[in-house]
Amino acid sequence: MANEITAPRSKASRYPKRNSPKPSTLLRQGYGGFSSPSSPQQATKYSAKENKITQRLRIIEGQVRGLREMIERGKYCIDVIAQSSAVKQGLSNVEDMILEEHLSTCVVKQIRNGSAKKAVGEILTVYKLKRR
Questions:
Q1: Could you tell me which of 101, 110, 96, 99 has the C-alpha nearest to residue 39?
Q2: CB 83 within 8 A of CB 33
C-alpha cells in the first residue's frame, strides 16, 4: 500500500504537545531570571508583566516554528534571514522587559535590605551580558 493517498496531517499532529511547563511557569520558577553564582536563586514574581512576557514568548515560538518550516520548504535565503532577525529582536524585547522588571523590583529590594553590593554586581553582570 505504498501508493496509498493520505490526507495531510493537521498542524496539531505535526507539532505534538510536549510535557514541558508553560513559559510563565518557567519564569515564576526563576528559569528566565537572573541568579548570582554566589547566592541561591530566588523565584521572581513577574506580576502584571507576566501576561505580556508570555504572550511575546508565544509569538516568538510561532516565529521559530515558521523559521524551521521556511528552511524545510527551501524558502529564499533573504526571507529566512528576515524571519531570523525578527526572532532575535523579539527575544531582545523579552529580555528588556525581564531586565526592567528585575531592576524595578529585585534590585530595589536588595538595596533596601542592605545588599547594595550584590545589586550592583548583578547590574554589572547583566550589562556585560547585554554587550555580547
A1: 110
A2: no
Backbone angles phi, psi at 30, to 5 degrees: 95, 5
Distance CA 62, CA 77 (A): 19
Cβ–Cβ under 8 Å, residues 102 and 34 = yes
Strand ranges for the chain from DSSP E: none
Q: Give residue 79's Cα distance to chain centre.
A: 23
Distance separating alpha carbons of residues 106 and 131, to the nearest angstrom: 22
Report DSSP state, residue 21: P
Give yes or no for a contact between 116 and 110, defined as CB atoms under 8 angstroms apart: yes
Q: What's the pLDDT tens digit per position in 34-88?
A: 444 444 455 566 666 788 999 999 999 999 999 999 999 999 999 999 999 999 9
Q: What is the pTM of this model?
A: 0.61
